[in-house]
Design goal:
By secondary structure, the chain is an alpha/beta fold. The strands form three sheets. It has a six-stranded parallel sheet, sandwiched between helices. Helix 8 runs parallel beside helix 11 and helix 10 crosses helix 11. The structure holds uridine-5'-diphosphate-xylopyranose.
């Protein structure tokens, strides 16, 4: 089939690469000239496992092209929209890029085409868009909502092995056309109306975020009563009704989706006169998890001014170079505010972090340079490089109290304690001898931090 994908971000580029690999004739339209130049040369502007190979393969077979102009979608049966829908400070979604491409599509349409919305848009958008745009077109255009559930770091695998394909729309011909595009992918296709499909995306992300905040609350309680979150979450997750995923306590969720979509759904709720209090709490807990790390560092080290803290991990999760809404970036900003010296390291995300952080952070070329001279380390991303680090070599280059704050519970706690570190995980027993409970929580002082 002849497909146009508008937007060469994570979703658009993965869709374009995978569809061309499956034999479809794909043009990917991107207005950013820098990105376009890289893509035409077969280079992907961000790290995503396996994607560059797919792009190169598509370019070589002539099934994938890149174009900077919207004209390129004029002769395509299917037009997928995968442009950014960033959040505004109040949580409202900025739909300006969507409006701009919808305008162009409608203006250029010369034969019946199917518009497939892959970008995350607020529930109700599609119904509105149909009235606002499609009715103006000179030819009949169909509109389908087809939300994407790809995870960064495993997006290519997720494309070929989704749990389900959700299609929202009322045009049966268009739905079967889109279903044909996915022929070969072994997953149930669930059809519904447009608004419901839009809601599925928000509900799924909000639910996963809820699991994370829930387990983080249980982790805080574990510290209060002297329990350990690791066996607790493992055993809770063994209940198949609950499932073992998204139950890892830590610094909370980051990335381009969960923070934006939880706030976006909260905004939609408020606009519709509904107070989604559960979701508000999920968002609040996630904010607190980041502040918790700073509070703990201050508790052990005293004033942070003049202390050196190594932050290991800048990406919002392992397997990606993406630092959007990454907890470690926010924590580093707080540490700098308090006068700490920060040494930062990430195996993949250094460049992106450098652009996002203010001056004053020392970006270490390797993990050993990052830990050198530190009073405390904060592991903020669960990269395997940190769990397999030669910790025996780390202690001699650090200063007392040799604090290791394991913000992702990914290190071997006992081993680190034996090697002379003051190990403290999230929801794990308090590290000071004779104390099993976290005194910060006990005194009720853990939140809020000073602004
Ligand atoms: C997410 C959704 O999983 C995906 O379906 C959607 O399309 C986009 O948003 P992604 O942002 O790539 O994908 O990351 P994901 O692997 O879901 O993790 C999100 C965040 O939650 C990360 O910061 C991760 O560290 C955190 N997380 C995840 C936890 O803190 N605990 C967990 O148990 C799982």
């Amino acid at each position: 089939m002849r497909v146009a994908v508008i937007g060469a971000g994570y979703v658009g580029l993965v869709a374009a690469g995978c569809l061309s690999h499956s034999g479809h004739d794909v043009v990917c339209i991107e207005k950013d000239a820098r990105k376009m130049a890289l893509l035409k040369a077969g280079r992907v502007p961000f790290f995503e496992e396996g994607l560059e190979e797919l792009v190169l393969f598509g370019l070589k077979r002539g099934l994938l092209q890149f174009d900077g102009q919207m004209e390129a979608c004029q002769d395509r049966e299917i037009i997928m929209i995968a442009v950014g829908t960033p959040a505004r400070p109040d949580g409202r979604i900025d739909l300006s890029q969507i409006y701009a491409v919808m305008d162009e599509i409608v203006f250029r349409a010369r034969f019946p085409q199917t518009i497939v919305m892959k970008s995350t848009v607020p529930p109700g958008f599609g119904v509105n868009a149909k009235e606002r745009y499609l009715e103006r077109a000179r030819v009949p255009l169909s509109y389908l909502s087809n939300p994407e559930f790809l995870r960064e770091g495993s997006a290519v695998r997720d494309w070929y092995h989704p749990d389900r394909i959700v299609i929202g729309g009322d045009d049966e011909t268009a739905i079967s056309r889109l279903a044909r595009l996915y022929a070969g992918i072994d997953a149930p296709i669930v059809t519904m109306d447009v608004s419901s499909a839009e809601m599925v995306k928000y509900a799924a992300n909000a639910f996963l975020a809820t699991k994370i905040s829930f387990i983080n609350e249980i982790a805080s309680l574990c510290e209060l009563v002297g329990a350990d979150i690791l066996p607790v979450s493992r055993a809770v997750g063994m209940d198949r009704r609950i499932g073992d995923q998204f139950l890892q306590a830590g610094l909370g969720y980051g990335g381009s989706c969960f923070p934006k979509d939880t706030c976006g759904l909260d905004f939609v709720s408020t606009c519709n006169g509904h107070a989604f209090n559960l979701l508000k709490a999920v968002i609040e807990v996630n904010k607190r998890q980041r502040l918790l790390a700073v509070r703990r560092l201050r508790h052990v080290l005293g004033r942070l001014h003049g202390k050196t803290i190594g932050v290991l991990g800048l990406a919002f999760k392992p397997g990606t170079d993406d630092v959007r809404e990454s907890p470690s970036l926010e924590i580093i900003n707080l540490l700098l505010d308090e006068g700490a010296d920060v040494r930062a390291y990430d195996p993949l995300a250094m460049e992106n972090a450098r652009r996002a952080l203010p001056d004053g952070v020392f970006f270490a070329p390797g993990v050993m340079e990052a830990v050198t001279d530190c009073h405390a380390l904060l592991v903020a991303t669960a990269w395997p490089e940190f769990s397999t680090l030669d910790w025996a070599a780390v202690r001699p280059v650090m200063h007392p109290p040799y604090l290791v704050m394991d913000g992702r519970n990914c290190l071997a706690a006992e081993e680190l304690r034996q090697k002379g570190f003051l190990y403290w995980g999230i929801g794990r027993p308090y590290p000071v001898q004779g104390e099993t409970r976290n005194p910060l929580i006990k005194t009720g002082q853990i939140f809020p931090l000073r602004q």
